[in-house]
Design goal:
With 325 residues, the protein is α/β, with parallel strands linked by helices. The chain has ten helices and twelve strands.
């Protein structure tokens, strides 16, 4: 009887130990985050600069939509500085983020950051700006900048005529959007020998710099007919320079982005046209793609184009709040 009691006690103790070990093993290894249905999974939104209302809309829409999908989302401002962007990536990789919604500072310089994230198992979804690599980002959601500026170029000729002088304000020289927009515009305008570009200068997509650059250009070229700007922030700076020079009613200004302040000035007849490139659509698409990836999907197009629409005095009432009303 004593032997039987000892045997039963031993079996019971073994069962208890086995149960405890199994419980500890499950607790120690099951550390994965939730996959988009709430919980602690984190998504990073890395933006080239927040010193532009258009990029603020892009960033906040991406963050808000990621939160709606159940993620903790944080915005990182790179301040148009590749070194700051690299520092953000190091922080993100070491902090357990599950995906990055990315607006690059430089088409070439940002590639290394995206590759580091990929090596760490973190998918990157580019928004608005692209990188010059097809094997780094999981997907790139981009405006059709070239076609959008072909339409702007056609409208430019219609409004300015086939003779006259104009200035072009370029964006960041390291950004593909700068050159795609410029090439699309020139693919039309350069067919008219009577249209002379008297100056082409970068203003880094920045409103204050565009003001300074155009003020300087106007000193040497006071009688221009138009200004084509690679984004709406520069269009606002250019318009401000023309107002200061007393030329706002004589020089036609064209922008690109679809920023609310420019759309309002188009309605007032003060700026001629812009290209609406739908930042909310790009941001929402990126957030939804990240959600799908985290949940297990792996097939994504390398580039997803988003059409640009010409906004002018004829259709301006259809647009507002960085998209169609």
């Amino acid at each position: 009887m004593k032997k039987l009691i000892k045997w039963i006690a031993a079996v019971a103790m073994t069962a208890a130990l086995t149960s405890g070990l199994t419980s500890c093993s499950k607790s120690d290894t099951d550390t994965s985050s939730t996959s988009g249905d709430g919980g602690d999974a984190k998504v990073a939104v890395v933006i080239s600069t927040l010193n532009n209302p258009w990029f603020v809309v892009l960033a906040e829409t991406a963050r808000d939509h990621a939160q709606e999908l159940g993620y903790e989302a944080t915005i990182f401002d790179s301040q148009n500085d590749p070194a700051t962007e690299a520092s953000h990536y190091e922080n993100i990789i070491s902090s357990g983020y599950k995906a990055i919604l990315f607006n690059p500072t430089d088409a070439d310089g940002s590639i290394a950051n995206v590759r580091k994230a990929k090596e760490a198992g973190i998918p990157v979804f580019c928004m608005d700006r692209e990188i010059n690599a097809t094997d780094a980002a999981t997907s790139q959601i981009l405006s059709d900048n070239y076609s959008g500026c072909v339409a702007l170029g056609q409208y430019f000729v219609k409004q300015v005529g086939d003779t006259g002088t104009y200035v072009e304000l370029l964006g960041l020289v390291g950004d593909n959007n700068t050159w795609n927009r410029s090439k699309g515009f020139h693919s039309v305008v350069d067919r008219y020998p009577g249209l002379k570009m008297v100056a082409q200068q970068s203003a880094d997509f920045d409103r204050a710099k565009a003001l300074e650059v155009l003020e300087s250009i106007l000193q040497a070229n006071p009688d221009i007919d138009a200004v084509f700007c690679g984004n709406d922030a520069m269009a606002m700076g250019a318009y401000q320079a023309l107002v200061s020079a007393g030329k706002a009613d004589k020089v036609k200004v064209f922008g690109f982005d679809g920023a609310d302040d420019v759309v309002k000035l188009i309605a007032e007849g003060k700026i001629v046209a812009t290209g609406m490139q739908f930042p909310k659509v790009m941001a929402q698409t990126a957030a939804e793609s990240a959600d799908k990836y985290i949940k297990g999907e792996r097939e994504f197009p390398q580039k997803t184009p988003v059409a640009v629409e010409l906004v002018n005095r004829d259709n301006v009432e259809d647009f507002g709040d960085y998209g169609r009303k």
